[in-house]
Amino acid sequence: MSPARSMPAYLKIILMSLMAAGFLFGFLDIVIPLNFERLHVFLFNMTVGGFVILHYTRGEGRPSAGLLLYLALGAVYAVLAFFNRYGIALAAAVPMWAIVEKTRTGRFSFFPKNFFRNDAPVERKFHEAALLCLSLSFVFSTVVVMNTEFFHWFTLDKLKPDVFFLGFSFPVSLITMSVMFRYIGPDRPALHRLIENGIFWTINIGVIIFFVFIIFGLFAAEVAAASVLFVAVIFLFVYFLKYGAGLKQKHFLISGMVFLLFTAFTGLLYIPAKAMGMTPLPELLLKSHAYISLYGWNLSGLFVITRREDFPFGMNSWKMILLHWTVIMLAPAGKYVPAAVPFICAAFIVLLYRYFFAREKD
Ligand code: HEM
After folding, report:
1. pLDDT level of residue 1 (50, 70, 90 thresholds)
2. For residue 169, how far is its CA from the centre of ligand 1 (angstroms)?
3. Is 226 near ligand 1, meaning CB less than 6 Å away?
4. Interval between CA 188 and ligand 1 midpoint (Å)
5. Alpha helices in the chain, H assignment, sequence order
6. Which fold has domain 3-357?
């Protein structure tokens, strides 16, 4: 353990509060008829997820002023975008993007040439891809906001900020995959490198192509791309089970991978369910998909990354994992049974607290 490099407590409290706020806002539409859903993505993925990726990349114990600025601007952006003040939100997005680019080009090259090098470790490729994806999410969402709000260059049903903000969901997935490959260990035979590169390209190209199909509303192509992603996720899961090192972190990453399998499964089923108008199944699938992907899979990854300097500590991983699964499986039901919401939110806050602060013997 190296407490000097652990994340400071005040920072954990800020991250925890932002995540809890995103989760609570997810249920607020039961009381106030407004769409709070995107706050999930802004607070959880763009602000907290982006910050953790940058902090991990820079390898600082105490974050620099630039990173704290990213965090503060992320919260401002979330509020402005929620009130549809996209024009002003862009003023926050530009410095955030500059901080991401400074970190990315400080650690990697401007052009991601590692992607094309056979000898570059795949954990490095996923790490670089996470930063590139974060940077591009700012660029594309900004262009789409400018199109929708001011210039109206293109008109397409799915070409709207809400869809493009989903890009912010993927950097945390990519950094978690980087960490998973790191725990597999450095000495892998050439065949493994080949398989790992196959997984890297299938997931990255697969997500980009899938996104293009969603934008153009190409049903059959969407199902095909989603099926390829589903198979790639199963493959990654089996590979990690077989070769992942026997560390305590592995329990949480395996639990995270099972969340990812459910993510891919619900995402895949959603497409035909929606096309066939099987109400209310598509809505239930999409809500489950959002909760499982963000607060299940992504949270597992964020936990392992933020507590990496504390492992292995005496926490009972299986008890934590059971609590995590209980909260995430019940969360979508809260949308239909309002009386359950206070309990679900309380359990989520307990989960966050334990993930950030659990110590020896907890
Ligand atoms: C691995 C395969 C995946 C498939 C097949 C899939 C599929 C889908 C589909 C079809 C949608 C609806 C898009 C639309 O028409 O607007 C969607 C939305 C979404 N996806 Fe995924 N997805 C996958 C992975 C992920 C991952 C890894 C994450 C996050 C880490 C994620 C987060 C989301 C979120 C937050 C939404 C928006 C939900 C909402 O509107 O409430 N997805 N996904």
Report:
1. very low
2. 8
3. yes
4. 32
5. 9-28, 37-39, 50-58, 65-82, 86-107, 122-146, 161-164, 170-184, 190-216, 219-243, 248-275, 281-291, 299-306, 317-334, 341-357
6. Cytochrome C Oxidase; Chain A (1.20.210)
The finding on whether 166 has its CB within 6 A of some atom of ligand 1 is: yes
Q: What residue spans define the domains of the chain?
A: 3-357
CA of 206 to the centre of ligand 1 (A): 13
Q: What is the arithmetic mean of pLDDT over 330-343?
A: 92
Give the global pTM: 0.94
Of all protein residues, whose CA lies closest to atom 4 belonging to ligand 1?
A: 267
pLDDT in tens, 269-307: 999 999 999 989 999 999 999 999 999 999 999 999 999
Tell me, what DSSP letter sits at residue 188?
-
Token pair 């862009």 is found at 90
3-state secondary structure of 128: helix
**Contact (CB, 8 A) for 292 and 333:** no
Q: Is 162 in the pocket of ligand 1 (CB under 6 A)?
A: no
289 lines ligand 1 (CB under 6 A): yes
Judged by average pLDDT, the poorest of 18-22, 219-223, 297-301, 305-309 is 305-309
pLDDT tens track for 97-134: 999 999 999 999 999 999 999 889 999 999 999 999 99
Structure tokens, 207: 């997500």
